[in-house]
Amino acid sequence: MLNKIVLSMATLRIFSGSIEIFAALLMLRFNQIEKALLVNSGLALVGPFVLLTTTTIGLVGLADKLSIGKLVWVMAGVSCIFIGILKK
């Protein structure tokens, strides 16, 4: 029997991967650099959302097993990832 938390995280990642494949097919279909960049920019919004959502689901699943201190460290790490991604 699959763990519901793991199943939710995997399903979200499969959905995200499907969006990535669809975006690649759109780029090939349009066959224009400008439109490919536009599609790629749309993906830039999806990636961080999926990362945040899957991490949140995982942390909710681990909440009863992690101490408050470790939970704060994990949240700080995720925050650093987002700061690194979003800062230019």
Taken together, the total number of domains comes to 1
Characterize the overall form: flat
Sheet/helix structural class: mainly alpha
Low-confidence segments: none
Q: Write the element-wise H/E pattern from the N-terminal end onward.
A: HHH
Residue-averaged pLDDT: 89
Q: Total number of β-strand segments?
A: 0
Span between termini:
44 Å
Tell me the number of helical segments per DSSP (H or I, 4 or more residues long).
3
Radius of gyration: 16 Å
Described by strand count, sense and barrel closure, the largest sheet is:
none
Percentage of β-strand residues: under 5%
* Helical proportion, percent range: over 70%
Polypeptide structure, described:
The N and C termini lie far apart (44 Å). The chain has 88 residues and is mainly alpha-helical. It is 86% helix and 0% strand. It has one domain. The model has no long low-confidence stretch (mean pLDDT 89).
